[in-house]
Amino acid sequence: MDFLAIVTTLRIRDLADILLLGILVYHLYLWFRGTKAFKALIGMVAMGVVFTIARTWGLFLTTWVFQILWQVLVILLIILFQSEIRQVLERVNPMRVLGFRRPNSSVDWAGDLSDAIFKLASRRIGALVILERSDRVNEWITAGQSIEADAGLEILMSIFQKDSPLHDGAILVREGRLKKAACYLPLSSAEGLPKEWGTRHRAALGLSERCDAWVIAVSEERGTVSIARGGAMTGVKGKEPLASLISEGILPKAQSQRSWGERVKSYFTINWAAKLLAISVVSATWLLLAGQQDFEVSFYVPPVLRNVPADKEIAEPVNPRVNLTVRGLRRDASTLRSSDVRVEIDLSLAHLGYTVFPVSRDQVFLPNDRIQIVQIRPTQMEFKLRNKQ
User: Fold this and answer.
1) CATH architecture of 294-387
2) d(CA 187, CA 199)
3) Which of 45, 95, 204, 209 could link 215 by a cystine bridge, Cβ 3.0 to 4.6 Å?
4) Cα–chain-centroid distance for residue 10?
5) Where are the domains of the chain?
6) Phi-psi region at 293: left, alpha or beta (left = phi > 0; alpha = psi -120 to 50)
7) What is the pLDDT of residues 316-364, one digit of tens each?
8) Rounded to an integer, what distance in angstroms lies between the CA atom of residue 188 and that of residue 10?
9) 103-251 belongs to which homologous superfamily?
10) Given CA atoms 70, 74, 75, 79 in this order, what sign does their dihedral have?
11) pTM of the model
12) Which of 33, 16, 151 is nearest to 87 (CA)?
């Protein structure tokens, strides 16, 4: 397949096709990243590549087996990962994808959560709070009871008080909403940790070592608040510094404070590697499949005039041309040039003056039978003959 010929025939709608699908693939990556379904999605992509190669090379048995497997796998994956798929669909919001958010409510929940955490610390109530960021933490946490509520003081008090059945574990906060309680986290295996650290601090550190989530640990013995980020634990002295950390590190910058130039620049610079990879994968896939796409091309062909009477010559038209529109697979039609096509008109019946001759499909000769004629213009041509001088 001549990839260079395909690239040189790219149209605006082809570029739009690649761009739109690239954006979709990028957001699917963001939504599924960190979930158990992401690994399965990678496996399906790999199988799709093998299936495409097998079909391109004409491997009949392999293609048939993969066609059967696709039907079974799609149903099986929907059943196994229905919770992850539901969460992804819940996050599909065109306003969010385009970057239009409501910053005020986000800032409010950061302040409310910080205030609630320090009130727990002042009452010597231990707590463990997961702040989910880009990576989904479902892969790393176990157990957990689903909850849907605002992460305020009352709900945190009811969860972490001693006699609560949910107090032994962490809560998961996603975009200001409490999603789970009584979650168990992986413990850090790092050596040399402070002896005063209990299970909560080791669990907070353990999760932060495995993903980009932030975990807030409240010590019931000392009444202190610490935050684990990137495998490191630091203390937080007050609710205002904690609220600032959440606002700057987890919440997006308020859109009202950003100019259009900043928004456009951030769209290209934030996660640029993932965006470039998504566009590259889609472009490569498009090139592999483009050869199977129907493609139309139009060009002008000067007709070959045969059997002109020996004593006569053509007076008009001086430079006759026939406009042809043909269709075929892109790998065939995209490389077609006017020099590859021949249009013959027999003038043996011509006489002095004007004579009209039809231009039909039978008079058009194409390089192969994979190309089809869509339109011929004009369908007839008028020639004026005169005696040779």
Assistant:
1) Beta Complex (2.170)
2) 8
3) 204
4) 21
5) 3-97+257-290, 103-251, 294-387
6) beta
7) 988 899 999 999 887 778 778 888 999 999 999 888 999 999 999 999 9
8) 52
9) DNA integrity scanning protein, DisA, N-terminal domain (3.40.1700.10)
10) positive
11) 0.49
12) 33
